[in-house]
Amino acid sequence: MARPVMLLALVCTGLFAGFCFCYAFAVVRALARLDDRAYVVAMRHLNEAVPSPPFLVVLAGTALLPWAVLAGGFGGGRRTWLLGAAALCAAGAIAVTLLGNVPLNARLAAGSPVAEADWHALRQGFEARWNALHAARTALAVAAFGLLAAGGLK
Fold first, then answer.
1. SS3 sequence, the chain?
2. How high is the mean pLDDT of the chain?
């Protein structure tokens, strides 16, 4: 039982870390080049598209499976520390997402700009904070994957 759970945990954390990494180094950079209105509209569309069923499965797997690996006795000695650190990093990445990025996404969706200055204000209240939170969750997700992989090596 431990081996399949470890593989599923690696797949989920790897997919989430890869998603975050690509988003940070491609999507965020591309969005930064847009004018305020285009940025807000594009980000709104992205925020609507991302929480699809496959993404939510990966998110749930990232949140839960590292803990299942740890609880399932896959570790021992040094492995236990690596797996525990992986589970904590994964939990941190999910917490940043749910408590930081998602509420900012909801605020961005609720804004109703009329004038160009409104688009600018909406972006200014969102972009820097969202990007900082995303950088944090990316680092945590990549760390979770690396620690989980290291803990799973024989």
1. CHHHHHHHHHHHHHHHHHHHHHHHHHHHHHHHCCCHHHHHHHHHHHHHHCCCHHHHHHHHHHHHHHHHHHHCCCCCCHHHHHHHHHHHHHHHHHHHHHHHHHHHHHHHHHCCCCCHHHHHHHHHCCHHHHHHHHHHHHHHHHHHHHHHHHHHCC
2. 93
